[in-house]
Design goal:
single chain, mainly alpha, 2 helices
């Protein structure tokens, strides 16, 4: 599984969202956070071992 704490961009977006009071800006930040999470979850794990074929 990808270590989400290793993404500086994701951490920056989360910090901004945690302090945002404007609802429109907050929604925009949340959409960006979700997009970045999707990208990170699609990235292959460098340490993962392929499963053996049966």
């Amino acid at each position: 599984m990808t270590d989400l704490t290793q993404s500086p961009q994701l951490l920056r977006l989360c910090k901004l969202a945690s302090k945002e009071h404007d609802p429109k800006k907050l929604v925009c930040l949340i959409l960006k956070i979700n997009q970045r999470l999707d990208e990170l979850m699609r990235e292959p794990d460098e340490l993962s071992v392929p499963e053996a074929a049966d």
